[in-house]
Amino acid sequence: MPPGDEDVRGLAQHAPLVFRGQVVQLSLAKAESENKEGIAAIAVDRWYRGGGRRHSSRVQLHFVYSPVGFFDGHNCVNLVVDSHWIFFARAGNASVLELFHDCEGALAVSSLFATQQSGDVLSQIEADFRAGLSDTDSEARLASIQRLAGLGLPASREALREFISHGTDIESRWALFGLLKTGDGSAVSLAAPVLLSLHHREFEPHPQPEGAMALAIEKLRDPAAVPQLIEILNGAPDELVRDCASQALMEIKDPRALHSLADHLSDSSQYVRYNSLIGIGYITHAPPCTVTDPKDAEKAESLCRNWWQSNH
Questions:
Q1: Listed residue (239, 305, 309, 310) closest to 276, CA to CA
Q2: Which of the two ends of the chain, N or C, has the fewest CB atoms closer than 10 A to its terminal CB?
Q3: Is 165:134 a contact under the CB 8 Å cutoff?
């Protein structure tokens, strides 16, 4: 999963233990070039949730790291001494904690954090991530932007816009991704030029954060984004980008998208064709464009296309 696409909000709401801190010691049972496993001692900076552990200033945490396993979405937390993280954990054996998720249970953060905030856990986490934007270390600033993207709260929008305008090139692009993740439909106008120029070689991963931006527009539900989503659907050479734009338009169900969706009933991508079909059905409720079984999609695409051409 690209950085910033982790479900920080879900992790913060569901993990029994949520805290942030610094790795101060490692006791490794396995320390090979491709595998690392052991116990990390964490000096806790702040408890967000933790019951009786709320006042513990030091905890022990079991972790496993495997660069090979990372490709399966597991064991990608590489804890090193002096690094700073936010942890989503649960009780383990004895006094040693376990990660709530073995790849997203610990996320790198800046060493900077905010003063105590009034409000809920998410508000405090957001304020702490935002404090990290002032870090003099460029990697820590970038991590802070990515954490705000993973949290996806509207409260971060002003700070992210500042980095879009005044950050380094890489910070600006990740901040734009983060702004999209907050659900801000106005950000699509800024993302459109990037997505319309996105090209990648077949069978190779999409460049980041551009590929992550495409996935972010898929989740937009703001009608204000419809004109830009139509522009992206009509002009993007990249299949993933068109797929994500058509998915968003399908879910928004805005009649302004009808002509573009109809045009893409003949798209080279089966996913774009399917999204276009479903989107037209949602908006018009026309029987030829209504499909209940994905197996019938190809036939329905032809029927819907004929219906559209006959009536428009």
A1: 305
A2: C
A3: no
Q: Nearest to residue 83, comparing CAs of 49, 109, 115, 117? A: 109
The string of DSSP letters for 114-129 reads: PPP-SS-HHHHHHHHH
Q: What is the pLDDT of residues 200-214, one digit of tens each?
A: 887 888 899 999 999
Q: pTM here?
A: 0.90
Contacts of 223 (CB under 8 A, 6+ apart): 185, 252, 254
Q: What is the pLDDT of residues 90-104, one digit of tens each?
A: 998 888 999 999 889
Residues 72 and 3: beta-carbon distance below 8 Å: no
Which fold, 117-182? Leucine-rich Repeat Variant (1.25.10)
User: Which fold, 185-311?
Assistant: Leucine-rich Repeat Variant (1.25.10)
| C-alpha separations of 272 from 27, 55, 177 in Å | 50, 52, 22
**Domain residue ranges of the chain, discontinuous segments joined by +:** 1-108, 117-182, 185-311
With 0-12 / 13-18 / 19 or more C-beta atoms within 10 angstroms meaning exposed / middle / buried, residue 17 is buried
Who's near 119: CB < 8 A, 6+ residues apart?
none
Which residue do the tokens 């879009």 mark? Answer: 164
β-pair type (84-91, 58-65): unpaired
